[in-house]
Amino acid sequence: LPKMAVLASAMKMLNVLGVANCAERDKDNGVSPASRLPAPKRTGDAAKSMTTPSTVAGSPSSIAISGSSISSRASIRHGQSSCLPPGHWLREHERFAYNLEDLDLLAVYLELSKAPKERFASEKSAKLTLSMLRFLRSLDIPVQDICCLLAHASIYFKDIYSVIGQNMNREELANVLVLLVFLAHSHVHDETCQLKVWHRYLFKGYCNLPTLSKATLELMKRRDYKLRVDDYDLEVALQCFRQVIRWKEEGKVVAI
Fold this sequence. Notes:
It is built from eleven helices and two strands, in the order H-H-H-H-H-H-H-H-H-H-H-E-E. With 256 residues, it is mainly α. The chain has a two-stranded antiparallel ribbon. It starts with a helix and ends with a strand. The model is unreliable at 1-36, 38-48, 55-79 and 250-256 (pLDDT under 50).
């Protein structure tokens, strides 16, 4: 495309993702929707669904950081420790995570996406993306599937960021990273949670639902409506996630 056409298309995308005053218009009495996320179900709960968040009362308490920078695989599996090195910026925001394993998942997702730290690292961005992982867990999505969604979304993000990334502000960057996970969820899973539910729990303080729907379509256009990714690229990404979690295969837990 000619440079002017690309620029015009990029500006259209930015206008869709960052409508003026939309955050003010959609605020819900100053309470962040992410703070109302339901706690994920624990193993053994009767009903399972990928379309409706769990309504189990309460939320997990904050978990203290382990004194060791590299923990045992058993600890990682139960979310009681993290592979992140001391001083990693995400450790400052662990209170927003369901467990410390989610810090590792987010760190790998950001690394694969090549999201620039200086443009992403903030409390607000960490809270949104960690709330997204909590939301996925509330849908009883297995951690292996969550890794698959993040792997797909990281590939989507690199394509999109290469075109319009330099013009995104910090808030748009975080919201695009989360919205791309929704697209991956829609592609990977047969049973999906509708966009309106994602909006209710994650995007309500940022924009209204029609705006979010338009942003979703714009992101799909950037991929030429193709959500399938190259098998090799996907396997490379999944191998990165396998380094920080216990991976279940055929009923067995495989230590990597």
